[in-house]
Amino acid sequence: INRLNPFEDVINKFTKALQFEIGINLFGWDLIIEEESNNLFIIDINYFPGYDDVDFENYLESTIINKLSNL
Predict the structure, then answer these.
(1) Quick one: pLDDT at residue 46?
(2) N or C: which end of the chain has fewer CB within 10 A?
(3) Cα separation of 20 and 57, whole Å?
(4) What is the pLDDT of residues 14-52, one digit of tens each?
């Protein structure tokens, strides 16, 4: 478990499941964690999110290459 983010494994699994269920790769979602119980709540899913903190061109390129190589 990542000590900085103990929810990393759950978040990664949820992201992959959501990716499969909605059938898209580029999306964002917002999560809140209830402090007392550590329950996770998804409060928003964006199919065309902002990518202010992401090197979008490289991410998009690697996503396309990955998808094409799996055809």
Answers:
(1) 84
(2) C
(3) 23
(4) 989 988 888 888 888 888 988 899 899 999 988 765 666
